[in-house]
Design goal:
With 98 residues, the chain is mainly α. Helix content is 61%, strand content 10%. It has one domain: Arc Repressor Mutant, subunit A (Orthogonal Bundle), CATH 1.10.10.10. The protein has a two-stranded antiparallel sheet. A hairpin with a 5-residue loop joins β1 and β2. The radius of gyration is 15 Å and the shape is globular.
Length: 98
């Protein structure tokens, strides 16, 4: 029982800006509906919408249309570069390169 509680606490730890950004961009590697990206990134609507609007404005995500003409979103080339930089920074901070 202690292990379950410890695991639950670890799972509940707050994610930082970089981790949330990585989660959103990774969820967008293939075209997805906005809601699906939000679910994959495990964010509530208000928090997700702030990140999402910022990523669209900065060109990290782009809108595409599905076969029915409905909007979907995917990571842009600029977003892929940004995702790579975030992953590298995360690895450096974790000390994985040494």
């Amino acid at each position: 029982m202690v292990l379950l509680m410890k695991g639950a606490k670890d799972h509940m730890s707050k994610r930082g800006w970089g981790t949330i950004s990585i989660d959103i961009l990774e969820a967008s590697l293939a075209p997805q509906k906005k809601t699906r990206i939000m679910y994959k990134a495990n964010l509530n609507y208000d928090r997700f919408d702030r990140y999402f609007a910022d990523f669209i404005r900065k060109g990290f995500l782009v809108e595409v249309s599905d076969s029915d003409g409905k909007p979907e979103y995917k990571i842009s080339e600029r977003g892929k570069v940004f995702l790579g930089a975030l992953r590298k920074a995360q690895d450096l901070a974790a000390g994985d390169d040494y």
